[in-house]
């Protein structure tokens, strides 16, 4: 199986705190749902920001589908749903989607159908006119709809199910399954271990900027245990 993401001896540290990533080696198999786990400050968000080109690594290499992340066009076909999405208060959901569709190069003739399809899937087709009136859960659903626009080859999700009720979480899982079934690679950064266990094929556990364990879910979670127990045991063993 080819790698959608490959990090080799990746280092990105912050001058004041010394935290970040310290020699991370990690592969994300293409076409999988990959859970990125770790306690607060483990380096997960730093890794995601390096993938998105928001931070430049100090040393090491990082590739997306075989292209270095700093190469022009490397992130074409990458969708992203941030932990704390923000949209213009006076935009409608449809306007948010149309703007993003133009930015990612969806042909004008396809924007209406692509936007309608994603808003329908997010249960936002009949949402109030202005985003400023949306609940936190509605904003998250809009962010996911935007991230999925254009059927990205890779989708990076940062806590996508936070602030969602059980029905909303199930809808997120269903859309993750849909993305995987069409061949996309999904990277899920989440503290909701029950959601990770339900959704992910592969998992990596990071602590203090280093990889503790990675593998398929059956490899990391033996029969009779759950992901939360395995995760806590690994982290406590490093304390």
Would you give an account of this structure?
It is a single chain. By secondary structure, this protein is an alpha/beta fold. The chain folds into 2 domains: about 1-75 and about 155-239, Rossmann fold (3-Layer(aba) Sandwich); about 85-150, no CATH class. Helix content is about 35%, strand content about 25%. It contains 8 helices and 10 strands. It has helices at about 45-50, 95-105, 110-120, 135-150, 165-180, 195-200, 215-220, 225-235; strands spanning about 5-15, 20-30, 35, 60-65, 65-70, 80, 155-160, 185-190, 200-205, 210-215. A 6-stranded mixed beta sheet has the order 6-7-8-3-9-10, with helices on both faces. It has a 4-stranded antiparallel beta sheet with strand order 2-1-4-5, with helices on one face. Helix 2 (about 95-105) packs across helix 3. The longest helix is centred in the C-terminal third of the chain and has 16 residues, at about 165-180. It starts with a strand and ends with a helix.
Brief synopsis:
The protein has eight helices and ten strands. It has helices at residues 44-51, 93-103, 108-121, 136-148, 166-181, 193-199, 217-220, 227-237, and strands spanning 3-13, 20-29, 33-37, 59-64, 67-68, 78-81, 154-158, 185-189, 202-207, 210-216. The strands form two sheets. It has a six-stranded mixed beta sheet with strand order 6-7-8-3-9-10, sandwiched between helices.
Give the key terms.
Rossmann fold; globular; 239 residues; 4-stranded antiparallel beta sheet; alpha/beta
Amino- and carboxy-terminal Cα gap: 34 Å
Largest sheet: 6 strands, mixed
Strand segment count: 10
How many separate helices?
8
And the CATH topology of the largest domain? Rossmann fold
Helix content: 25-40%
Q: Which structural class matches the secondary elements?
A: alpha/beta
Q: DSSP strand (E) fraction?
A: 25-35%
Radius of gyration: 18 Å
CATH class of the largest domain: Alpha Beta
* CATH homologous superfamily caption of the largest domain: P-loop containing nucleotide triphosphate hydrolases
Give the overall average pLDDT: 90
Number of domains: 2
